[in-house]
TrEMBL record:
Its main location: endoplasmic reticulum. InterPro entries: ER_ret_rcpt. It comes from Punica granatum (Pomegranate). This is ER lumen protein-retaining receptor C28H8.4. The keyword Signal does not apply. Belongs to the ERD2 family. It is found in: Endoplasmic reticulum membrane. Pfam families: ER_lumen_recept (PF00810). The chain crosses the membrane at residues 71-90, 96-116, 152-169, 181-200. It is a multi-pass membrane protein. Keywords: Endoplasmic reticulum, ER-Golgi transport, Membrane, Protein transport, Receptor, Transmembrane, Transmembrane helix, Transport. GO terms for molecular function: ER retention sequence binding. GO terms for biological process: protein retention in ER lumen; protein transport; vesicle-mediated transport. The keyword Protein transport applies.
Amino acid sequence: MLSMCPCLPPKTELTSPFLCSALLCITPKERQTEVLGRIFDIFVMGRKRDSPSAASSLLRWLRRLPMKMKVFLGLTFAAVTLIILRLTLGSHIHKVYIISELCHAIGIIVLIYKLTTQRTCSGLSLKSQELTAIFLVTRFVWSVYIEQNIHTILDLVTLVSTLWVIYMIRFKLKSTYIKELDNLPMYYIVVPCAVLSALVHPHTNYFPIGRFFFAFSAYIEAVSVLPQLRLMQNAKVTAHS
């Protein structure tokens, strides 16, 4: 390593701690802080640049993997995470659900702030927001009918925020909405989810309509991001064409 210290010749190497100590001893007090900082840069920061961290090595290894292996590792990680959460939290798993609902509500509020300040909704899928509103309405009705607890309040806050986002896109920021890219038909998602909810739903003591609402909201929530992904894909294709 080459020294950057002003008290040594330009190409003197600081390979010994004793040399560094001697250098500090002969350096005037008013310049010792500067010299010490340069020694730190040479030994510590330079060493970090020379030897990559474990995290960067892991990321490079992951990038070299085939896509199928990446998907397999991702699914395995998700499954293991869910199992660990189930084993560690036990009966307190509903707290994670509350945290996720709270994060969703905060995310929508942040989105409203961005739309209000930047005055554009370019790149945002209206259909994803409408699907979000659909599953929130369904879940809110089910929650009012069954629970009437903190989940109901969080769903109401998120629903109102989502409806405001839809209003902003449809009316206030209509000129910046790229409708031709947001072209995934809604019935491709809503109809299959409704049919699946009628066939596959949790067996509880509630009325059948309550089971249907619960399953329908869960299925719609799981796929509500598809229009947004389709819009991003269309935008990428348009940019490369």
